[in-house]
Design a protein that fits this description.
The chain is of the alpha+beta class. Helices cover 29% and strands 21% of the residues.
Length: 472
């Protein structure tokens, strides 16, 4: 009996031991599966929310990167440089080699630009009396949203304007008009009308009389000195994980928008939270993989959005949402990639990539644009047409050194009935009386600029004419 009991005990012990082994194995399997699930969730959330965060943050990060690269001496051959709260003045009328970092630059105006920081105190902008000459300064915050100082909004008499940050409280000096900005940092891009080379000196004198001064160094009529240069390495963060580090750093400083509270809660779920540290080096491997994929795909989405054709009017693509984006973060990012812009009421940029047959426009073809006498673009300012290489949106050298054509072009020939015909091709036309706009040899994009467009344009009561491709 004792022997039988011992056998049963041994069997029971073996069963218990086996069960423990099985339970241990099951626990290990469960733990392993849990780890896999956690990693799957973590990577997927980082990827999906990170992609949305990339689209949302693109202008914020792009502008922060450009601000660093243009307010520090990052290379010996750097064209655009000015310290924070100072202006860089482009020294020439823009041509094929003088556009700097500008994308699809115009040939109608002289450019001047600068990066502002009003985190500590307001910035005063002085503008001269331009005697009704067109000028504008686009004040762009880090959300890529714009307001304007200039002829249309503030007139052309001499003025002082004070940019004030979201947390500033105080009183500006007498005679200084307050311009509140939503972000402490941002970009100033100015344009001054220039009527060709013969008008350059007069236009540049006005540009040189536009200057910036922080409130503590401001004295009316006295332009402050330029601070010493600062050297630094160039920053390139659009295509790597540092993108999210820059976004997080700016997110901590940007005032929360009530309508975006739910979106910010999503960003917090992947570590992009205000007032909490964010360091890609401390992320799990799964989260790093997800964010790395988000950067890669996010960049491709922005590029695709910038190349996407929008609903057109007679073949002209016209966006009337530049500078005011609401929740359309993809459009905001695509505009930032293309070079930012003015509000529609300041200037419109109808663009064309395809000819009437749906083919990419090409310099070996001959195109015409015909305006009836009573169908000239209705603008309070002026209009012009320019052609850029499709590959990089830059001007291409031509024998006339003509990089735009419009209502101010010298020697423009109107037809007997008052209509106007423009001819677009790469080679010089046989007829010397042709209103010729030389275009790049390969594929190109057309950009029409309508400065201070009238209500008929803004409300689509006026449409630009269709482009015609001629047989040759």
């Amino acid at each position: 009996m004792k022997k039988r009991t011992l056998v049963i005990s041994l069997v029971f012990a073996a069963i218990v031991a086996g069960a423990l082994v099985i339970n241990a194995n099951l626990a290990g399997i469960v733990a392993s599966r849990q780890q896999q699930n956690d990693a799957l969730i973590e990577e997927s959330m980082a990827y999906h929310i990170g992609t949305l965060a990339y689209l949302y943050a693109y202008p914020i990060v792009d502008m922060t990167q450009q601000m660093h690269n243009e307010t520090h001496r990052v290379s010996d051959d750097q064209q655009v440089y000015a310290p924070v709260n100072r202006l860089y003045r482009f020294p020439e009328i823009v041509g094929p080699d003088t556009g700097g970092n500008l994308r699809a630059p115009n040939n109608d105006t002289l450019y001047y630009s600068g990066w502002f920081d009003v985190s500590e105190e307001p910035l005063i902008i002085h503008t001269p009396d331009t005697q009704r000459r067109y000028y504008t300064i686009a004040v762009t915050n880090l959300y890529s949203e714009v307001e304007h100082i200039g002829r249309r909004t503030t007139g052309t008499e001499q003025g002082y304007f004070g940019l004030t940050g979201p947390n500033w409280t105080g009183t500006l000096p007498d005679g200084v008009r307050q311009v509140p900005v939503e972000s402490e940092q941002g970009w100033l891009l100015g344009r001054m009308l220039v009527e060709g080379p013969e008008d350059y000196e007069a236009a540049m004198a006005l540009v040189n009389d536009i200057w910036l001064a922080s409130l503590s160094e401001f004295t009316p009529g006295q332009r402050p000195k330029m601070p010493p240069e600062e050297e630094a390495s160039a920053r390139e963060v659009i295509n790597n994980l540092e993108f999210f580090s820059i976004f997080h750093a700016q997110l901590e400083k940007l005032p929360p928008r009530a309508a975006e509270a739910a979106l910010m809660a999503q960003f917090e779920a992947i570590g992009l939270a205000r007032s909490k540290p964010f360091d890609p080096a401390t992320l799990s491997e799964a989260a790093r993989r997800g964010l790395a994929r988000a950067v890669e795909d996010g960049e491709e989405i922005v590029k695709a959005a910038a190349q996407r054709t929008i609903p057109d009017y007679n073949g002209w693509m016209i966006s009337k949402k530049i500078g005011r984006y609401g929740f359309d973060y993809m459009h905001r990012a695509s505009v930032a990639l293309g070079g930012y812009g003015n509000l529609p009421e300041e200037s419109l940029y109808p663009a064309m990539i395809f000819d009437p047959d749906g083919e990419l426009m090409e310099g070996g073809q001959v195109y015409q644009l015909h305006f009836a006498a009573d169908e000239m673009p209705p603008v309070d300012g002026f209009w012009s047409l320019a052609a850029y290489r499709l590959t990089d949106q830059q001007l291409e050298e031509n024998e006339l050194q003509r990089y735009s054509i419009g209502d101010r072009t010298k020697g423009l020939r109107y037809n007997p009935d008052g209509s106007l015909t423009l001819t677009l091709q790469h080679e010089r036309p046989d007829d010397p009386n042709t209103n010729w706009l030389p275009v790049p040899a390969g594929n190109f994009i057309l950009v029409m600029r309508l400065y201070e467009p009238e209500a008929a344009v803004l409300e689509n009561d006026y449409l630009l004419p269709e482009l015609q491709r001629l047989a040759h």
